[in-house]
Amino acid sequence: MIAKLTLAGCLLVSGIGLVAPLAVAADGADTCVAAPANALPAQCQAPPIGDSSGVIPDAEAAIARALRLVGGHGYYQLCARLAANIWGRPRAGYISAAEQWRQMVAAGNAHVGDRRPPVGALVFWETGGPYGHVAVYVGNGRIVSNDIGDRVPGEGGVYLVPLELIESRWSATYLGWAPPIYSTT
Question: CATH assignment of 4-178?
Answer without folding.
Answer: 3.90.1720
